[in-house]
Write a structure and sequence with these properties.
299 residues; alpha/beta; 10 helices; 13 strands; 36% helix; binds adenosine monophosphate
Length: 299
């Protein structure tokens, strides 16, 4: 089954203590779509400007991502610039230039509207609503967000939460949304806002699911070297949704393994700048790391 993914399609300029890389392919939807593509068909919804390099279109195509929902408009591609501190965890946004995203108001291709799995990756909640409004009867809808939308679009985000099956956010966003430092109390409070499944990401400490079957603690893959963590959260949720869409049977039977796959795909994302490492990974390498995680966490 296919996954429809909407989010940002961006050029990212990333600075770490070791290197500077301008205008890499980035954006929440790009990272999530490549991650999901290891498991099954992906339909991308996004917009780029006339400056979007052709080699990035080819990259999407190599991952067999359906691009009928990717528009090119006059103007500039969304550009984000960020800088990491030496610990590679703290990040500062240097620039956010919305470009063609400012006026993006997509009409989905007819063939997109029946996609059973929908991932509303990080982008303005109004756009997430707009895309969801055009879907016929999705089986499972998940969304991600970021602190910016909690600050500037909270009413839209709260409305969106009532329409979701799963909400995925990181620990600082959960704290900001609920006013709770304790992650387990925060999970309970977020359920009350709507979603049946809530996943809180904790970076290199893994993630926690709260759902109908209770809690699941998902480990992060132990990486010794992080080159660039940009897009790790998007890769996590993209991998998780891709795995779920490919699995047959009830969500509850697969969601724990789906998160573990998401966690492993995110680990590969951190090993290269932008999507550089991800585009060279094989399904066999992903399965190998999942097996390792199983060994590391069994007792
Ligand atoms: P993550 O590291 O998972 O937080 O995601 C980083 C990605 O989010 C980058 O590829 C950026 O292009 C994208 N991004 C940054 N700011 C925004 C924004 N305001 N809206 C949508 N995507 C963004």
């Amino acid at each position: 089954m296919s996954v429809l993914i909407v989010g940002s399609t961006a050029l990212d300029s990333i600075k770490t203590p070791k290197a500077v890389n301008p205008r890499l392919l980035g954006g929440s939807a790009s990272h999530a779509a490549v991650a999901a593509s290891f498991f099954g068909p992906v339909k991308l919804v996004g917009v780029v400007g006339e400056d979007f390099p052709q080699r990035y279109v080819q990259l999407y195509k190599r991952h067999r991502i359906d691009l009928r929902g990717l528009q090119t408009l006059p103007g500039k591609t969304f550009h984000w610039a960020g800088e990491y501190e030496a610990n590679m965890n703290n990040r500062r946004t240097l620039k956010t230039e919305l470009g063609v995203f400012e006026t993006f108001n997509p009409t989905l291709p007819e063939v997109y509207r029946d996609a059973p799995f929908v991932l509303l990756a990080n982008i303005a909640p109004a756009l997430q609503h707009h895309v969801l409004n055009q879907m016929r009867r999705p089986r499972f809808v998940a969304a991600d967000t970021m602190d910016l939308w909690l600050n500037v679009a909270l009413p839209d985000l709260l409305k969106l939460l009532k329409r979701l099956d799963a909400f995925v956010l990181n620990d600082s966003e959960a704290q900001q949304l609920t006013g709770e430092d304790n992650v387990f109390v925060a999970l309970k409070k977020i359920h009350r806002l709507g979603p049946k499944y809530v996943v809180i990401k904790q970076g290199s400490h893994g993630s926690i699911l709260s759902g109908p079957q209770g809690l699941f603690i998902c480990p992060a893959y132990p990486l010794r070297k992080v080159v660039d963590p940009t897009g790790a959260g998007d890769s996590f949720v993209g991998g998780m949704m891709g795995y779920l869409a490919a699995a047959k049977g009830p969500i509850d039977r697969h969601i724990r393994r789906a998160m573990t796959y998401g966690s492993v795909v995110a680990s590969f994302c951190c090993e290269g700048f932008g999507l550089q490492r991800m585009t060279r990974v094989t399904r066999g390498q992903i399965d190998g790391r999942v097996k390792e995680l199983e060994r590391l966490t069994r007792f």
